[in-house]
Write a structure and sequence with these properties.
6-stranded antiparallel sheet; 226 residues; mainly beta
Length: 226
């Protein structure tokens, strides 16, 4: 039999070291007080991210995105998931600095296999809990050139498209496009495979697009989801 206890302390919350005794925190009316699951994973050190413009972690110099329509062998983001973990994408944002001339803008996030990036930059995942010693087992690259190995898209997480104007009076400034688990109300589970290796792809296609990409995800051992 399992016994669940609750406490109504609001001003005298006591936090102890790890043990087997835990109380659910309650409001004075008996309401359960909790935190979002993704925030709990941040506390565990299981949430990671990358951000880049022209280089890893830069907030100063824009990167150059793939020109024209989405090209399946030209990646603005390529994450490779090893077979020992599952990745749960939580946030993806493309912040455009410029889009080029009047043309289609197409932003997408998907998963699949077989993609190989050409050139590009290497991104170093950071832990969203600065006190954690856990590191991501994934490899992430960005801003690839045309002429890599085309990917096979197995599923789409997010996409946004428009025909954008630039340099036109009274045209609203375009700050960017984003997908988040909070907005969607769910988190996809991208389970790693041995062969072919499972991957997450991101694109920020425009006629002459430049800007920054931020991508964040939870990363769990397979036994945590099976």
């Amino acid at each position: 039999m399992t016994e669940i206890r609750g406490v109504t302390a609001q001003k005298t919350v006591v936090r102890t070291d790890e043990d087997d005794r835990r109380n659910i925190r309650l409001g004075y009316g008996g309401e359960t007080i909790g935190i979002p699951w993704l925030q709990a994973l941040v506390l565990e050190g299981r949430m990671f991210g990358v951000a880049y413009g022209a280089a890893n972690n830069t907030v100063a110099t824009v990167g150059t995105f793939g020109a024209g329509a989405i090209d399946l062998d030209e990646f603005d983001l390529l994450q490779t998931v090893p077979a020992t973990v599952a990745v749960l994408p939580a946030y993806y944002k493309v912040a455009f600095d410029a889009i080029g001339t009047i043309a289609a803008v197409h932003v997408a996030l998907a998963w699949g296999q077989t993609g190989v990036i050409a050139a590009g930059i290497t991104c170093t995942p950071y832990n969203l809990n600065t006190g954690s010693t856990l590191t991501s087992l994934c490899t992430v690259a960005g801003l690839g050139d045309d002429g890599g190995t085309a990917c096979t898209v197995s599923g789409v997480i997010y996409q946004e498209a428009t025909t954008a104007l630039t340099g036109v009076a009274a045209t609203p400034a375009m700050l960017g496009y984003e997908w988040s688990a909070g907005k969607a109300g769910f988190v996809p589970v991208i389970k790693g495979l041995v062969s072919p290796t499972r991957q997450v792809f991101g694109w920020a296609a425009a006629q002459g697009g430049t800007g920054f990409i931020t991508y964040q995800w939870a990363e769990l051992p397979l036994e945590a989801i099976e």
